[in-house]
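Teaching assistant here, posting this on the class forum so everyone can see the example we discussed in section. The complex has four components, and the goal was to see what a joint structure prediction looks like when all of them are supplied at once.
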Amino acid sequence: MVASRPGGRTARVRADVLRAAGDLLAEQGFAQLDLGEVARRAEVGRTTVYRRWGTAIALVTDLLIDMAEQSLPRSRTGDLDQDLRANARLVQRTLADPRQGPLFKAIIAGATWDEGAATALRTFYRTRVGEWSPCVAEAVERGELPAGTDPAAVIQAVSAPLYYDLLITGRVPDEPAADRAANAAALAARAGAFVDLAGHAVETSDIERPA
Amino acid sequence: MVASRPGGRTARVRADVLRAAGDLLAEQGFAQLDLGEVARRAEVGRTTVYRRWGTAIALVTDLLIDMAEQSLPRSRTGDLDQDLRANARLVQRTLADPRQGPLFKAIIAGATWDEGAATALRTFYRTRVGEWSPCVAEAVERGELPAGTDPAAVIQAVSAPLYYDLLITGRVPDEPAADRAANAAALAARAGAFVDLAGHAVETSDIERPA
DNA sequence: ACCATAACGGTACTCCCGTCCCCTTAACGT
DNA sequence: ACGTTAAGGGGACGGGAGTACCGTTATGGT
């Protein structure tokens, strides 16, 4: 009895299809992503693409999952500003990348209506944020940031303006924008904007609640 | 000779179609927005919907334009924190609204691949940001914020985390989230994060210039 | 080496989205 | 009020996306 066959041909087909989908995504964008054309470019049966993925957003979701497996290690400079700037620049380079940029735009758009895309996106960012949070946690331990600062909130605060530019203003963020985002997050964090108490975190100064 | 006829029936048809589209958007989301069903719900000819709008994203775009005409006046409390919090709460309520929330999600998603949606979205936010920027400009004049602070950047910094939550983490922002966003932006602004000089705006903390 | 079968690939088919055609309705000028 | 003609509505049509069917390939266990 054979349960499944992920090896050999199946793996090659998946790789071919994902590469073709990534090419088309970079060339024409998500709106023009036609499964039939993907099959042609991948030199694969049209039926196969429909059977294994079924929809364009499912294909793009698989593309993200595939990409997520090659994750870069975070920086460890021991300095909050440098770490946050490194993080911001990583995000910025990703969004500006001719292949990854369109992929993320497609996934984010798809996540607004497709549950699979939304799940993959959240999983991806949970991993990413979890990977970079220690930068902030260590800064708290060093006394660079007030006790009780929420590491995940700081990391997300770095990314937020970059995504805002990409999605709302339609301007792909550049490196100065990344540095500004990192700087703003660092300054806000130092001022205690990301201290998570039970109540509101609007006292800014008097914070002395160790975990 | 008659050039155009925007009155009477035409206006009524537009109103009926937009209302039906908004209903369906709120009920089923953008993915299920079928022009045929919109026509049925609006009790309007299917041909008419296709002739005047053509695509679902064009319909949603018109919906945004229609909604933008009823814009709320900004608050003028004379206090930066209160103004920014009012702005954040306005954005939060919009995104959490059962009708406007799905609309914005659809428009933002559509703007990643449809030029018309992107233009409408940018126009909408240019108006919104321009309307609220005086809050920041006045705070600069009062000396609450450093000279050279970019008003638009501050306003956008308030919104960015809320959109990040909505689109990336998939969590619709609540009122505490709005207050946190406003607070973080205010603290960063006071620390000079949004001063736009020719070079880098990182005078606040130690920084090395990179060659 | 051999077999059972997971997975692929080609083709025919279906169904429905979007368009076309043409008649009907009702704005707007006079 | 009356005529001209934008604009709307019904129905038929075409095309292409997605599916069903079934034969073919090659994987993985024995």
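For the discussion questions: The longest helix of chain A spans residues 115-142. Residues 199-211 of chain A have pLDDT under 50 and may be disordered. Think about how each of these relates to the inputs above.
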